Amino acid sequence: MKPRRTILIHVSKGGAIKRTHSVPLVLSLAAIMAMALAVFSGFIGYKLHLLRYDTSRIDLMKEKNAEQAGTIKDLSKKITALDEELSVLKAYNRRLKAASRILLDHPENMMGMGGSDEDFSHGSRGVSVLPGRAIDFELDSHVERLGEDIALEQEIAKNLISEIDRQKSLIAHIPSLCPSQGFFSSRFGWRNSPFSDMTEFHKGIDIASLESTPVYAAADGTVSDYYSSESYGNVLLIDHGNGIMTKYSHLLDSSLEIGRRVEKGEKIASIGNSGRSTGSHLHYEILINGVNVNPLRYMLK
């Protein structure tokens, strides 16, 4: 006869005691099933815990991605603005260069290589393609290139403006203005002397006009001398720099002191009839490194 186990179950209500009988095999199976159920429940609980953790991580990543997308969008707007600013600066430099007709040394080495805003103008569409570090690297690289290009274009603009200022100063010191109103009574070169039948070389031009007609500086410069001579009467010399000088003769008068700075178009004297002259007029000369040249070749108006 197989041994049996007796299990007493006490029910609190009414105080009754129930009896049941079980064999060892049944008890063993029940214990195994209970253990398996406990292990399965624990496994399911662990998986649920991991699932909740993964869900939290996904939510956090989504939040970070959304934040990153917003940051990239803001940066893309700033980069786009910098790209536009760089384009305007380049166009401005090209206009300056064309206006001044300046050829810089190796201009291809001085032109910026600014990127376009295509890579960063689509908001967050690139977030899922590039990881965060790659996006940061691309943004940093683009901003760095923009900074270098803008700095280079600014340096080009600075050089262009400096060269234009130099050219303006040079032009201002070139005697291109007709120094007085009147008509040309004698031109530069060989002529018959008004005082003899001999041929002589006329070193300047004569502008005949009424006495006291204003005489103007043909260019910016400095009064270098004022004197009187028997032939040329009252003479005023202006030094324009770079070896260029102008000479104004037969003047009525001039109140300018030696060393005085004058500007192009400024009144410097009055037409007279001083010295050896047949009538009131201005004898005007241009000398470059001490050599007389034809003033008419330099007059623009």
Written description of the protein model:
By secondary structure, the protein is an alpha+beta fold. The protein has three domains: 61 residues; 103 residues, no CATH class; 115 residues, Glucose Permease (Domain IIA), CATH 2.70.70.10. Helices cover 39% and strands 26% of the residues. The protein has two helices and 14 strands; from the N terminus they run E-E-H-H-E-E-E-E-E-E-E-E-E-E-E-E. The strands form three sheets. Strands 3, 6, 7, 8, 9, 10, 11, 12, 13 and 14 form a ten-stranded antiparallel sheet that branches. The protein has a two-stranded antiparallel ribbon with strand order 1-2. A two-stranded antiparallel sheet has the order 4-5. A hairpin with a 2-residue loop joins strand 13 and strand 14. Helix 1 runs parallel beside helix 2. The longest helix has 77 residues.
Order of helices and strands: EEHHEEEEEEEEEEEE
- The best one-word shape is rod-shaped
The beta-strand count equals 14
Strand count, sense and barrel status of the largest sheet are: 10 strands, antiparallel
By CATH, the superfamily of the largest domain comes out as: Glucose Permease (Domain IIA)
The radius of gyration over CA amounts to 50 Å
What is the CATH third-level topology name of the largest domain? Glucose Permease (Domain IIA)
Q: Helix amount, in percent?
A: 25-40%
Classify the beta-strand content into a percent band. 25-35%
